[in-house]
Specification:
- By secondary structure, this protein is an alpha/beta fold.
- The protein has a single domain, classed as Rossmann fold (3-Layer(aba) Sandwich).
- It contains seven helices and six strands; from the N terminus they run βααβαβααβααββ.
- It has helices spanning 11-15, 28-45, 59-71, 96-102, 122-134, 150-160, 165-169, and strands spanning 2-6, 52-55, 77-79, 144-148, 177-182, 185-190.
- Strands 3-2-4-1-5-6 form a six-stranded mixed beta sheet, sandwiched between helices.
- Helix 5 crosses helix 6 (150-160).
- The longest helix is centred in the N-terminal third of the chain and has 18 residues, at 28-45.
- 37% of the residues are buried.
Length: 195
């Protein structure tokens, strides 16, 4: 089974800024979200023996993974490049409002994120995320907590459940929930609401 987590809120998330491969730190809310997710996983897993935490190496995901790891008794965090967020190329770090003003017809369409001229394509993200998924032990032996991002997490869930590109792009990307990927199905488990 895989428990899939999105990193906690960042400064860029709060500013509605595209992150891609550019990083920004977790906000105070983001730290609280990571702690809540870690507590939820502690309750779900109970005995962390045999579990692995694998994270994107980008700072926001790695910071979230470290907080989760502490809640799980100090499991080591493994970093894997294949879990990184999609790159928007020259648009990494730009305000979403700027992109919406320049490309008003793009936003609102499913899969719009993959249309940036210098960014990664859906196929590129799916190839690296799919390679990571294929490298895991088979079910039911796998015991993985994966910490990733909004778009790469959508792609991962889509590949796992054999969803189309459009279906993958329509999935929620909460920062206060965990997705359970187990035996071909995906379930969402929400944390207690944060104030």
């Amino acid at each position: 089974m895989i428990y899939l987590v999105r990193h906690g809120q960042t400064e860029f998330n709060r500013e509605r800024r595209i992150q891609g491969h550019v990083d920004s730190p977790l906000t105070e809310l983001g730290v609280r979200q990571a702690k809540a997710v870690g507590g939820l996983l502690r309750d779900l897993i109970r005995d962390p023996a045999g579990w692995r935490i694998i994270s994107s190496p980008l700072g926001r995901a790695a910071s979230t993974a470290e907080i989760v790891a502490r809640k799980l008794g100090g499991l080591p965090v493994e970093l894997d490049e294949r879990l990184k967020e999609m790159s928007w190329g020259e648009n990494d770090g730009r305000l979403r409002a700027e992109l919406e003003a320049q490309h008003p017809d793009t936003f609102g369409r499913t899969g719009w994120a993959f249309d940036a001229a210098t960014g990664e394509t859906y196929e590129q993200v799916a190839a690296r995320v799919g390679d990571w998924l294929a490298s895991l032990p088979p079910e039911p032996e796998r015991k993985i907590v994966a910490v990733s991002h909004g778009i790469s997490g959508r792609v991962l869930r889509g590949l796992y459940a054999d969803l189309s590109r459009d279906q993958s792009g329509q999935q929620d990307v909460p920062q206060d929930a965990v997705y359970l990927l187990h035996l071909g199905s995906i379930g969402r488990i929400d944390c207690e609401p944060l104030e």
